[in-house]
Amino acid sequence: MKLHYLNGFILSAAALLVVAVAGVIWGNQALAEPGSPVNSRAWAEYLLAAAIMLVNGVLSIQIANEARSRQPAVTPAEAAKPADV
Asked: What is the pTM of this model?
């Protein structure tokens, strides 16, 4: 896997997945803030958020790759030539 496939959305999805798995393993009490009521479906909400972030990350990578493929290729000689002012 190339590094340019890791964007903020993918990394956020990974973090949310870790939190969701922690909620499943240690219970939703681990996901609640001290003094607040425990949400019985908190792990599922984190899992859903991870899935949404993953889809968003994959779509943004696909859109960026399509935009990159539509740009004309620039040769090294053209890149070194100064711009006309």
From this structure: 0.73
